[in-house]
Design brief:
The protein is mainly beta and 447 residues long. The protein folds into 3 domains: 2-190; 221-294, no CATH class; 296-446, no CATH class. 12% of the residues lie in helices and 35% in strands. The protein contains 7 helices and 31 strands. The strands form 7 sheets. Strands 1-2-3-4-5-6-7-8-9-10-11 form an 11-stranded antiparallel sheet, with no helix packed on it. Strands 21-20-22-26-29 form a 5-stranded parallel sheet, with helices on both faces.
């Protein structure tokens, strides 16, 4: 139980936590320490899915706010601690959709008509500079007049609790509630020490090295070591709060069930070629401190070759996109850039169990071929078969060629004979997250 004084005299906020460290309730006291309202919370892992508000005066009906979540910035359900993951919010039968800015910050909410009901402006440390959308109280009625009707159902302005970094904002005390500790945007720092201690930096209270505009803090449970940055395997160090390997699987967006294929116990911040030990989903946390994961990202740009006609006329969108869609956002990976289908297939095989994900820019056909600008080709199933032989699904596959995700395509069986084939299903068995095109990719639009 934690108690904050939101005002030195008149108001306190008391938080209640369960044995897992999740907040399950908050009690807000007003003047003379009289209870005003109680908030109860329900969780799905790291994500809050329900908030119930009960009022002590018994004249105001209880409110239930529900939160609906999808993939967060990691591309998985909770790999980034839910940052950027809220899809919708409901209250009093009304439906709201968040509008995101960079780094998973909620900049506002719109209702089901598309009209803004809240807008937020943040300072560089996540503090709220201004809020639009709060109900404007009408002037008091003249004598004998009925007071004007004000629709107070649903949510308005500051009543939305999730904002900066898609985290719950305790507006009464000016704190942002992350999963393991609270952050003060006014101070620009955490209230308590880093759970992974100096491994997260010498400033135990610093928030993402003061680079709030560019970076996020997901969990703080696992910290990627600086020494393994850019290597074929990235090493993560656990914090003392780690109870199982599920949190690491969520962090990197890989299946926990296949961790014995993609994970290895290490003895230092850099992955070893000789002294690594195997790991399973049930390996007790006392057995590991460092764990390495796949870190090779393949960026196959097969559209730079060919003649001017191919590059400028046939596929200008692919050529333009290949400049911006690959390396952008892939810092920290060991990036490999094959230029031909043959080289792509070879590198997929040689990467072994170090392959994390891939992006392929190429031409495509309805019968599953990946084609370069100079008309060399490889069939998609050769890649998927090679990847699945590693024993785990890679985290991400972005197949940017036409028809890469066609659900009713064909596959060559023998000369002049083809049978129906679902390429979306094929890639779903190969990668945790798959992006492709059912039709033609024309400058990023699926036709």
């Amino acid at each position: 139980m934690m108690k904050y004084a939101a005002s030195p005299v008149v108001r306190t906020v008391e938080h209640i936590y369960d044995e897992l460290g999740e907040r399950v309730g908050s009690v807000q006291d007003g003047v003379d320490w009289i209870e005003e309202e109680t908030h109860s919370f329900a969780w799905d892992g790291w994500n809050m899915v329900l908030e119930r508000i009960d009022y002590a005066d018994f004249t105001t009906s209880s409110r239930v706010i529900e939160y609906y979540w999808g993939d967060d910035l990691s591309g998985s359900e909770q790999g980034a601690g839910g940052v950027g993951g809220i899809l919708a919010v409901t209250c009093d039968g009304k439906f709201y959709v968040p509008i995101y800015g960079g780094n998973g910050n909620i900049m506002g909410y719109v209702d089901d008509s598309g009209a803004f009901v809240a807008k937020f402006v943040y300072d560089p440390f996540g503090g709220v500079v201004s809020i639009e959308g709060d109900i404007e109280e009408p002037p008091p009625p003249m004598s004998g007049e009925e007071p004007p009707y004000v629709d107070r159902t649903g949510l308005h302005g500051s009543e939305f609790s999730f904002g900066f970094s898609t985290k719950y904002h305790d507006r009464e005390v000016g704190l942002i509630a992350y999963q393991l500790r609270s952050y003060s945007p006014r101070l620009g720092r955490w209230l308590n020490r880093d759970p992974i201690e100096e491994e997260g930096g010498v400033n135990l209270y610093g928030f993402v090295d003061n680079e709030v505009v560019y970076r996020i803090d997901a969990y703080g449970l696992w910290k990627g070591t600086k020494e393994s940055y850019g290597f074929k395997r990235r090493v993560y160090k656990k914090s003392r709060d780690v109870k199982s390997l599920k949190s690491l699987a969520n962090r990197v967006g890989l299946d926990i069930e296949s961790i014995s294929a993609w994970g290895r116990i290490e003895t230092s911040p850099v992955a070893s070629e000789t002294s690594s030990s195997p790991i399973t989903p049930t390996t007790p946390s006392s057995k590991y401190c460092y764990v390495s994961v796949p870190n090779i990202w393949i960026e196959a740009d097969l559209l730079r070759g060919g003649n001017v006609y191919n590059r400028v006329i046939v596929n200008p969108g692919g050529t333009i996109g290949s400049f911006f869609g690959q390396t952008l956002g892939r810092w920290g990976y060991h990036t490999v850039k094959p230029k031909t289908p043959k080289e792509l297939f070879r590198i997929v095989g040689e990467s072994g169990k170090n392959l994390y994900g891939l992006t392929v820019y190429a031409h495509g056909s309805t019968n599953g071929y990946i084609v370069s600008s100079d008309e060399r080709m490889i069939h998609q199933t050769r890649l998927t078969t090679s990847i699945r032989s590693k024993g785990y699904r890679i985290a991400r596959a972005n197949m940017m060629q036409c028809y890469s995700a066609i659900p009713f395509g064909s596959i060559p069986v023998e000369q002049y004979k083809e049978m129906p084939f679902d390429y979306t299903a094929e890639w779903t068995k190969t990668a945790v997250k798959f992006f492709g095109y059912e039709g033609m990719n024309i400058i990023g639009i699926d036709f």
